[in-house]
Write a structure and sequence with these properties.
The chain is an all-alpha fold. It has helices at 3-20, 24-42, 49-65, 76-94, 123-136, 141-152, 157-164, 168-186, 190-200. The longest helix has 19 residues, at 24-42.
Length: 207
């Protein structure tokens, strides 16, 4: 973890503690700081903007209502991700669009891979990244989600496991299953795939 990340996390912890004590300014600061990234994360499960925004609002209403009994998460962002994920799934279920957490093919997980043109070494790497962009979208939803969390959000496997409500071992197995699927269609090494994924996603913009 970088020094900047530690400072950022410490700052968020201060805001979180102030919010828990009933500080309205801290509460609105949390909302303003995280609304955009929560909205973006919500789009990984549904394109229904009303469901997403309603879920975010429900989340923050619950936070304020239950603030006195909340714990102190190591990562505020990860806590909010996990909470929003659960709320969205419940809302989709209530709309008779059942999302089976155990069946990775059941829910949508659309997202776009970003490219950093400056880190593309040559035409061969560019071609591999284009193929990865295409084939990642064809992966089962939970495999897409773990790639998003790992390479786009830059989260560790313990954090991913917490958000996806699986154990760390299952997180490793899930991402390597995704690598296997990509390797089958791309006919290249896992190392090349991992390096290309790091190049595809703007990981440095988040950490």
């Amino acid at each position: 973890m970088s020094h900047e990340q530690i400072v950022h996390d410490d700052h968020n912890t201060v805001i979180w503690l102030a919010f828990k004590e009933g500080n309205w300014e801290a509460y609105t600061q949390l909302y303003n700081q995280y609304f955009k990234i929560l909205n973006n994360y919500g789009h990984k499960f549904t394109r229904d903007i009303n469901v997403i925004e309603d879920a975010i609002h429900d989340l923050f209403i619950r936070l304020w209502t239950n603030r006195a009994g909340l714990g102190n998460p190591v990562s505020v962002k990860n806590y909010l991700f996990k909470s929003l994920r659960s709320i969205i799934f419940r809302k989709l279920q209530s709309k008779s669009r059942f999302v089976d957490l155990e069946n990775e093919a059941e829910h949508n997980f659309p997202f776009e891979i970003s490219f950093d043109q400056q880190i593309m070494a040559d035409e061969e790497e560019q071609e591999l990244q284009k193929k990865i962009k295409f084939h990642v979208k064809a992966l089962p939803a939970r495999q897409q989600e773990i790639i998003y969390l790992r390479f786009y959000e830059g989260l560790g496997y313990d954090e991913i496991a917490d958000i996806m409500e699986i154990n760390v071992s299952s997180a490793y197995k899930l991402i390597y299953k995704a690598f296997d699927n990509l390797q089958d269609v791309l006919k290249t090494s896992k190392l090349a795939i991992v390096l290309a994924l790091y190049s595809c996603f703007c990981i440095n913009n988040h950490h």
